[in-house]
Amino acid sequence: MQVSSITHAAQPEAAAPPAPTDILQKILDTTREAVIVVDADMRIARANVPAEVAFGRDGFDIENGRLSEVIRDLDLHEAFRKAIVSQASADVRLELPTREIRKFEVHVAPIELDGAAFAIGFFYETTQIDRLEIIRQEFLSNISHELRTPLTSILAFVETLESGGIDDPENNRHFLAVIRRNAERMHELIADILELSMIESGNVSVDIREVRLSNAVDEVLSALSTKAADREVKLRSKVTEKTLVFADPTRLGQMLTNLVDNAIKFNRRGGEVVVSHEMRAGRDIVSVRDTGEGILPEHLQRIFERFYRADRARTREVGGTGLGLSIVKHLARLHGGEVSVDSTLGTGTTFTIELPSK
User: Fold this and answer.
1) pTM metric for this prediction
2) Which domain holds residue 167?
3) For residue 155, what are the CA distances in angstroms to 148, 150, 182, 213?
4) Of 161, 179, 204, at which residue does a domain stop?
5) Could you tell me if 211 and 316 lie in one domain?
6) Residue where a domain stops, chosen among 66, 100, 125
7) Which of 25, 79, 189, 211 is the most exposed place for a label (fewest CB within 10 A)?
8) Distance between CA 176 and CA 161 in Å, rounded?
9) d(Cα 348, Cα 290) in Å, to the nearest integer?
10) What is the pLDDT of residues 279-322, one digit of tens each?
């Protein structure tokens, strides 16, 4: 009997598995946080792109560089050394003294690759979180102070009235006026906080349309004329009747009111507030100029921050929530524009709203 032979097709050889270091590099390349791997010689054996961006300087490739040369931090260096020598994990806080200090929480752990001891570090940047926490703390501190002052006055005068002051015809009206004034101050503060919160959270939209600027300016100056007269400040508009701008009418009035009110408060008695308009590089420039004492240069960069006051003593005297300029900044940006300030000591200050022209 003839036995037929059956030929089996040759099976392809199985591909060799990738080396552990290759797998590690692929993992690192998909990680958003900065990650570096350090060998027993304390040199950086592997690094992903976020680590190159965070720690590289002048195009310097950090791989194969000594850890102490790339990141100069003794605690971090010690954490990597212990992870390699003692197989101990550690958490370290790191601050990089770059142009703007960057902060990281670093988790360092031992890792074995191809039978050799290494240490891997994961860098979680907390710069923005820390900055927001500082802002939150400052906000709570400021809001507590701003609410405490009028509340203290209200409670004091209420107690005075309850203790018999209500039967004093010469002073009871005065006491009630003080209570009302401080209650109104609290109401303004809360209203501004809510307004600013809505703007910053993106819950405020603008209905941009063609607006006759002179009408908006005249309305604002008329509404603030009594306050200006009390401080002997002259209000003047140099905006022509034909001037048209593209803005949300309500929000434009709000910006102008905040700037003119601010210019009245911080003007000198007998001073002047002038609102003007010009076209510059195809954009509408609306300016509010006062003749006050001016603002020191070191304050100009922070003048639009919430609750920031260049002259706290003067602010307590004239009132205000400290949020008006911050609201103006956000509203201007909602229009696709910007607000800026220029000041000369002893001469005055000019706030400028820049609006896109269609």
Assistant:
1) 0.58
2) 129-204
3) 10, 9, 10, 44
4) 204
5) yes
6) 125
7) 25
8) 9
9) 5
10) 988 899 999 999 998 888 888 888 888 776 655 444 445 455 56
